[in-house]
Amino acid sequence: MMLQEIGHWSVRPIELTGNNQPEAVITLYQEISVTSESSEVGLSDSNNDGIDTERATTIYKPRTMIFSDAGALLYSEFSQDANTSMTAIADLGDGGPAAIVIDEPNNYSFKRWSAKHQRFE
Hints:
Number of helices: 1
Number of strands: 9
Strand order of the largest sheet: 1-2-3-4
Strand content: over 45%
Radius of gyration: 19 Å
Number of domains: 1
Mean pLDDT: 81
Low-confidence stretches: none
Shape: globular
């Protein structure tokens, strides 16, 4: 059971705030649905729940949190609009810290850490 739970989250150390100390980028994968690739119930429907277990696909939504090197929460997708998610971290090539790439409903945006405002903007 524990091994199965560990498989649904990841931790990546990466420097995002410009202080030369890595932040912890934690991504949790929230199970949102189970779908079947076939509309017909096959012989492998052992639970009689209408889902062919050999062809079932679980869909996960990633949720990201970023903690500073001191443990302060810098970014969380658990406290903001559920329609946005961090999809990547990008080096913009201008010498500044890496930016997070946010997938919004109609576009993508880059956000960098603002030391002045203490948030990603």
